[in-house]
Amino acid sequence: MRSKLFVSAVAFVLLFIMAIYFIVNPSYEKSLRAKYHYEIGEYAEAYDLAKEAFEVDTYNRMAATVMAQSQISLKYVAYIKEAKQYMNSIDEMAKYEQLSDAHRAKIKMMCNIMIGSYVKLAPSVITDEKLVQEAAAYHAKFEKLLEKVTKN
């Protein structure tokens, strides 16, 4: 009974020391803040903080992971932003009753760009599922649109 209590106390003290180290160490403090910003969807801020933390301590694996994940998420955010802009442009062109050949070519080019860009995206296990799903939805829309435009 006494040995279990002693082991538990030692484990608790070690965890307490580790927690203090994480809070006091500037690299780990920044990486914890970066992780927080990543979790709430502020990927640019998370990337900047993780990069700073990694520069302070290149052995900080948490900072390296958050930095890499933020970079992947920022690529998804950029893809979605560009997809929205292209869809708005395509919607403007689609207002006309008949699409001109120039508009068809422009839509086809936009679709090819977005389909090619999607292939370059590589989600990881911890990439925000909403980002992955939204990008996949836009990819599917561009594939259907490309098929429709090339068919006519």
Account of the 3D structure:
The structure is a single chain. By secondary structure, the protein is an all-alpha fold. It has 6 helices and no strands. The N and C termini lie far apart (81 Å). The model has no long low-confidence stretch (mean pLDDT 90).
The gist of it:
The protein is an all-alpha fold and 152 residues long. The protein is 84% helix and 0% strand.
Write the layout of secondary structure elements.
Elements: H1 2-24, H2 26-39, H3 43-56, H4 61-93, H5 101-120, H6 129-151
The proportion of residues forming helix, as a percent range, comes to over 70%
Mean pLDDT: 90
The beta-strand count equals 0
Low-confidence segments, given as residue ranges, are none
Straight-line distance between termini: 81 Å
Number of helices: 6
SSE ordering? HHHHHH
Q: What proportion strand?
A: under 5%
Global Rg: 24 Å
How does the major sheet shape up?
Answer: none
| Structural class category | mainly alpha
Please state the overall shape, judged from the principal axes of the Cα atoms. Answer: elongated
